[in-house]
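G., the chain you wanted modeled:
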Amino acid sequence: MLERLLKRDRLIVLGGVVGLSGLAWLELWRHAGAMAMHAAMPHPVPWRPPDLGAAALMWAVMMVAMMLPAAAPMLLLFATMQRKRREQAQPATPTGCFAAGYVLIWLAWSGLAAGLQWALQALLLLSPHLATTSGLLGGGLLVLAGCYQLTPWKNTCLTHCQSPLGFFLTRWREGTWGAFRMGLHHGAYCVGCCWALMGLLFVGGTMNLVWVAAIAVFVLLEKAVARGPWLSRAAGLALVGWGLYLLQTALHS
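Predicted structure as tokens:
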């Protein structure tokens, strides 16, 4: 039985990614519904520590829902490599060790995002659905994200995310701790690739699940489907144009 399971490692990893992502999306749907019911209730400013913790947890769930599917090619390749090592009687490491490092980086990012949300809400710049109420802020976030899409830093991080085999050839580490470190490295590249796009959640609303899903689909296409930087750069130009339009509208209103 164990041998049969080990041979189905890719199916198990893919099932885990789909299952965890699905649970995260269900939790986001539940949370969005609860926020819609209490949208008319004012939120205390400044936040209390439990509020910051709840926001960080919400961001963590959102990052699992959005980013774990984009990491599936890397996780599947890692699982395949470990299965081949077991077949050759070499030491193998569970894929979960690599995934844990990847998720930990996004958990750290979630804490930073919650802090930014805290600051924006304290300045009364967010609606009850956590979308910016300032055209200047919204336009600025769009221009920032668009410009970053065109930078060499974005291209470097995207290249690592688009090439799982190249990543492992240059970053391979042995053992459980080595797999965890590789997960940290990949997570860092992933954050470097997508941090500006995650800022766009404040433009359409972090509880607007259609907007969240649209960004998640774009990230998946950019990292796992498109080859090269063409999609990233095309989106960057579109975001800059959209942002400049919003800025011009806000300045003349």
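Residues 2-251 form one domain.

Shout if anything looks off.
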